[in-house]
Amino acid sequence: MKKSKIAMVVFDMAGTTVNENNLVYKTLQNAINNAGFDFSLTEVLAQGAGKEKRQAIRSVLSTYAAVSDEGLISVIYDEFMIALTDAYNNEDILPQPNVTQLFSALKERNILAVLNTGYDRVTASSIIEKLGWKEGVQFDALVTASDVSHNRPQPDMIHLAMKRFEIQDSSRVVKIGDSTIDIEEGQNAGCGLSIGITTGAHTATQLLTANPDYVINDLIDLLPLID
After folding, report:
1. Backbone φ/ψ region at 165: left (φ over 0), alpha (ψ -120 to 50), beta
2. Which of 56, 80, 88, 143 could be disulfide-bonded to 157 (CB atoms 3.0-4.6 Å)?
3. How far apart, in Å, are the Cα atoms of 12 and each of 15, 100, 117?
């Protein structure tokens, strides 16, 4: 079967296109541990990376403490969101190496660059604003956890992006992210390629457990794969 031309690449944000040194998961770890727990950052990353953040808290608590108290989850989430807003206002947030070059190279190839994230829209938009990126300039669209009914690993965010740009064939879409749940999201959407990258939450070994098509170490390594 002839391979269809790639029409769109869907990128995760934190850890993939945005370098924030795991700020979100360090903040999440603090919020959870402030509720009387003692989880390591490694544990929080293993269960929380890439997920909608309320679901990330739920996964960490259920996995390591057999806790499923929705009231407690809401309290932790509210504290986390306040702390994260403060952290993002005060800490450096940088683009990942080669991301702007990659966006330009995709534009030259008439391939859409879409950002998707387990953040809500307000948080994601504030990060993008701090980077100085604009929709329609550096990237073509943003889809967030608050835009869809079902979050990763369900394919709703990718399907919404496809619908926006009238892409019918999911094999023409590439998904790339730094967590196993990003890879699973791409697979569940039927993406032509689901790719892990080692610049964020999960190691190459962890990423490989999700059976990605490739694992890369730098965003620019994506180009030969789609060419």
Report:
1. alpha
2. 143
3. 8, 14, 5
Domains of the chain as residue ranges with CATH: 8-20+93-226 (3.40.50.1000), 23-90 (1.10.150)
Q: What mean pLDDT is reported for the chain?
A: 94
For the chain, counts of helices (H) and of strands (E): 10, 8
CA angle at residue 60 from 180 to 175, to 5 degrees?
A: 20
**Cα–Cα dist 43/61, whole Å:** 10
pLDDT at position 4 over 60:
no
Could you tell me if 144 and 117 are in contact, meaning their C-beta atoms sit under 8 angstroms apart?
yes
In the three-class reduction of DSSP (H, G, I as helix; E, B as strand; rest coil), residue 95 is classed as: strand
- Residue 116 structure tokens: 């998707």
Confidence of residue 2 (pLDDT cuts 50, 70, 90): very low
Question: Which residue's structure tokens are 């023409």?
Answer: 172
- Over the stretch 67-106, which tens digit does the pLDDT of each residue have? 999 999 999 999 999 999 898 888 888 999 999 999 999 9
**CA–CA distance, 154 with 48 (Å, rounded to integer):** 15
Q: pLDDT band for position 170 (50/70/90)?
A: very high
Half-sphere CA count of 214, side-chain side, radius 13 A = 17
